[in-house]
């Protein structure tokens, strides 16, 4: 279903593209992240564990930026992960304003268990597109994401 907005042709075209993009992204995220609940993880918690697993120890503010989460939301996500023993937070020894976050052994074990199924689900969902279409989609999403920077 497209827009019901009665505007110019350019406005209607942009709104229709936006609606389709938003619906597709939300639908894809729901399908690819649904299994995380079975591991007791939210999408944000998985994102934190995945970032720390691949990038190593990071300042809390950098994790927030990478995952596009507010610092307040990130604090809550990290508190819950810390309660579960999946991450640990420490004040930076050189700059007390920063909190460094590390993945624990338990967090590493969990992400190594979850990640293969997660990747397989993404590959399966995107298999409706050819390799070239996936590259085009990635390029267009990057172009939209960098708009205004």
Structure explained in plain terms:
The protein is mostly helical. The protein has a single domain (9-146), classed as Orthogonal Bundle (Arc Repressor Mutant, subunit A), CATH 1.10.10. The protein has six helices and three strands. It has helices spanning 9-33, 43-55, 60-67, 71-83, 105-126, 131-146, and strands at residues 58-59, 87-91, 99-103. A three-stranded antiparallel β-sheet has the order 1-3-2. A hairpin with a 7-residue loop joins β2 and β3 (99-103). α3 packs across α4. The mean pLDDT is 94.
| Tally of distinct domains | 1
How would you characterize the largest beta sheet?
3 strands, antiparallel
CATH superfamily: Winged helix-like DNA-binding domain superfamily/Winged helix DNA-binding domain
> Which CATH class?
Mainly Alpha
Kindly name the structural category.
mainly alpha
Q: What would the CATH topology be?
A: Arc Repressor Mutant, subunit A
Could you give the distance between the termini? 31 Å
Average pLDDT score: 94
Approximate shape: globular
Helix-strand sequence: HHEHHEEHH
The total count of strands amounts to: 3
* Strand arrangement, major sheet: 1-3-2
Residue runs with pLDDT of under 50 for 5 or more positions: none
Short synopsis of the structure:
Helices cover 65% and strands 8% of the residues. With 149 residues, the protein is mainly alpha-helical.
Q: In terms of topology, how is this protein built?
A:
Blueprint: H1 9-33, H2 43-55, E1 58-59, H3 60-67, H4 71-83, E2 87-91, E3 99-103, H5 105-126, H6 131-146
Antiparallel strand pairs: 1-3, 2-3
Helix pairs in contact: 1-5, 2-5, 3-4
């Amino acid at each position: 279903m497209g827009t019901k907005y009665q505007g110019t042709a350019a406005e209607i075209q942009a709104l229709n593209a936006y609606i389709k993009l938003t619906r597709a992204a939300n639908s894809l995220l729901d399908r690819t992240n649904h299994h995380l609940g079975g591991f007791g993880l939210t999408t944000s918690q998985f994102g934190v564990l995945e970032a720390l697993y691949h990038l190593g120890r990071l300042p809390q503010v950098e994790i927030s930026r990478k995952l596009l989460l507010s610092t307040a939301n990130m604090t809550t996500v990290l508190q819950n992960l810390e309660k579960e023993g999946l991450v640990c937070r420490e004040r930076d020894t050189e700059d007390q304003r920063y909190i460094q976050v590390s993945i624990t052994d338990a967090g590493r074990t969990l992400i190594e268990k979850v990640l293969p199924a997660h990747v397989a689900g993404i590959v399966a969902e995107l298999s409706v597109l050819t390799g070239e279409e996936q590259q085009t989609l990635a390029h267009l999403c990057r172009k939209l994401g960098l708009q205004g920077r």
